[in-house]
Amino acid sequence: MSKQDRMACERIERMLGAFVDGELNSRQAAAVEKHVGLCPSCARKLDDLRTLSSLVADAVADEPLPPTLRASVMRVVRTECPDRETPRRAPHWRRWGTALACSLCLVVVVLALIVGGGDKMMMEGIFDANTMAPDAPDAAYPPYDKSENANDSYYGGDHDADYDDPTSPEAPDEPMAPMEPSLPELPTTGEEQMRYMLHRQDGAATGVLDGEWIGETLRLTLVAQTGEAKVAYSGWSEARLAAYTVQDGVLTLTYEDGAVERFDFDCEEGVLWLTRK
Amino acid sequence: MSRDDRELRSVIKRAQRDDEQAFETLMRVVETPMYRLALSMTRQREDAEDATQEALVKLWRTLPSYRFECPILPYALQITRNTALDLLRRRRARGETVSLTVEGEDGETVALDIADPDESADPARAYASEERIGEVRRAMDELPLELREILTLRAIEGMTYGQIGEVLSLEEGTVKSRLSRARKKLEEILKKRNIF
């Protein structure tokens, strides 16, 4: 065997384990397959490795689960959660359900502070999560719903119809008033995607906010005329937001039931992270 | 995300909200891999059962803070590993040693059989196969803990190098090299006993 062949065998031998485990990319796997097709020694090593892996898998799988294990665990679980009618209350930020307040308001607050260099952005929920299910990847922007009902949930009945149309010459150009905590319905399962239209108060910019669940984190991508910013937020709350303050890089949310949550702001490479304190 | 993944996520979320039935469903998914890892680490059934039970209770208690950053199985196995390590430390502190042999009636030491072979349609073949599995298990028991646990994790269906790395807090490259070392060592032991 030449030195070159020996080196090729050594290189392939180092990859055999990952090949058996399915951890090679297609190019690497093809190289291994080609080499073992031509090299009897490496082919034997591959067979041995497969046999060994199979023996280990059999040895590990051969042991049955103790029959009393599950019952023992459930006894403890039931002791710690005796009353299923009134489950123990999780902290606010973990309660799921119809989230009517925190998230979107929080995003609005954050966007207002971060995106557009301080200009305030309005956000309206155009549709609920069902119309932007992950199964509908080709869904385009929906028609903008100018009906009164579509906007009431956000504006709480105090909605000014002229606000809706970004091209309206009537849109006021004063700085926007502080955000009202009334919000559209939000998806609650973390499975749906969402899309919102954004209109700057003076009508000078429009944008699209796409929301995507990644695990328990809501990642919102805003594309607006002023540039691009991403917002990531983790956690939802069931309680309605009563007030918020932003001071010294800390966002404080106060809910109607008196609960308070605080987050640190951190903006890194265009992504805004909110870390619960 | 596959349908199974969605269903599992839904089960986990319900369990996070104190749904006992959901937790029991979740337990059926993770209990066997957890037990197998605990057994490979402790090498004794009773200790493995204790460690697994403790780990499952810890899983129940910490589930509300699980954020889906990684799949549930590596998360559960990480808890199992830490629990088993605690148990091994307690055993060492008490001066207990783990023995794989017991003294037979005639004074000879015999290997402790940790599995009872099942009969198949071909008893001789089944016995030979079970004996081989027993030998492999005994050979694995002789490996250092870090090599034993990585072989077991790899043998647990569906565990990628990345997920194994999460359980053991290792980089993927280290997982790969440690797995290679474990296999070489195991092969040496088995060849010495003419099992391989």
How does this model look, in words?
The complex is a heterodimer of chains A (277) and B (196). Chain A has 277 residues and is of the alpha+beta class. Chain A has helices at 3-20, 26-38, 40-61, 69-80, 102-114, 148-155; strands spanning 121-125, 194-200, 206-214, 217-224, 227-234, 241-247, 250-255, 260-268, 271-276. Chain A has a nine-stranded mixed sheet. The radius of gyration of chain A is 28 Å and the shape is elongated. The relative contact order of chain A is 0.12. Chain B is mainly alpha-helical and 196 residues long. Chain B has eight helices and two strands, in the order ααααββαααα. In chain B, strand 1 (101-103) and strand 2 form a beta hairpin. Chain B starts with a helix and ends with a helix. Mean pLDDT of chain B is 82; it is low at 98-125. The interface between A and B is large, with 46 and 55 residues.
Please outline what is shown here.
Chain A is an alpha+beta fold. Chain A has helices at 3-20, 26-38, 40-61, 69-80, 102-114, 148-155; strands spanning 121-125, 194-200, 206-214, 217-224, 227-234, 241-247, 250-255, 260-268, 271-276. Chain B has a two-stranded antiparallel sheet with strand order 1-2.
Structural descriptors:
heterodimer; A: 277 residues; alpha+beta; nine-stranded mixed beta sheet; B: 196 residues; mainly alpha; 8 helices
Question: Helices, strands, pairings?
Answer:
The complex is a heterodimer of chains A (277) and B (196).
Chain A: H1 3-20, H2 26-38, H3 40-61, H4 69-80, H5 102-114, E1 121-125, H6 148-155, E2 194-200, E3 206-214, E4 217-224, E5 227-234, E6 241-247, E7 250-255, E8 260-268, E9 271-276
Parallel strand pairs in A: 5-9
Antiparallel strand pairs in A: 1-2, 2-3, 3-4, 4-5, 6-7, 7-8, 8-9
Chain B: H1 3-16, H2 20-42, H3 45-62, H4 72-93, E1 101-103, E2 109-111, H5 123-141, H6 145-155, H7 161-168, H8 172-192
Antiparallel strand pairs in B: 1-2
